[in-house]
């Protein structure tokens, strides 16, 4: 059975100090902190989610901030670069904003598009591209107005230890379409209008090492819970080992590692981040699953600060 994901649901990465993480993604990039919770497998660590005004699928970047963790190494078996899409005509604004905060960037062209490439404070590789497709964000914060704001993901660049097999998975399993080839990149496109462009590098690097400044996994969208069940059967039909369903409170998830070493997740669009907070109050307090509520006082006392704040350029 042919199946097609609409694109990226979320990307999860490992970073360092949580306040530095919030300062960059909210204070500099203007994204909304839509959920402040903890890593369910390591409750002494935050799990922070940033996105548009509602944390819609296709806009969500999530982080495990481990202040004392070792530095990772970006390499094969990982997302090399996370691409964000901004409204057409706003790259000049973003150039000035990155310059204001003394963030070093470079301009590159790929498949006829101009990108601003830069790193976050913990070493994650990011880029901005302007495209017409995708709904504008309604969120404005810290000098970034809604008509300038990041819409969500443009896509990602993948590094793989086995480019041919990774590309086969993208086409045959996930249902993306090959749409171009340029230099060391092969471009694939999903059916959605955001988080839909994946560039695969044909060259290989030494395997990456997980740690601060690396992407842990990339998640693809499933429409709903029934669709999710069909996705698990579909992936399994290719002889790929898939995890059982996991309840992540705001979506259900399954995981598998594709042949090039990249950890893939498929996540449901529902129930979303308003299941335990109103849209107006998203990200304003620490949210815990029922089984961790008894530890709330301890966690609130021991977790480091992670508060969105409007920045001046000398803070970063």
Automatic annotation (TrEMBL):
Q: What keyword terms does UniProt attach to this protein?
A: Dioxygenase, Oxidoreductase
Q: Does the keyword Plastid apply?
A: no
- InterPro entries in the record, alphabetically? Extradiol_RC_dioxygenase (IPR052537), Glyas_Bleomycin-R_OHBP_Dase (IPR029068), Glyas_Fos-R_dOase_dom (IPR004360), VOC_core (IPR037523)
Give the VOC domain ranges. 7-131, 152-269
Annotated GO molecular function terms are: dioxygenase activity
Q: Which Pfam families match?
A: Glyoxalase (PF00903)
Answer yes or no on keyword Transport.
Answer: no
Protein name per the record: Ring-cleaving dioxygenase
Organism name: Peribacillus asahii
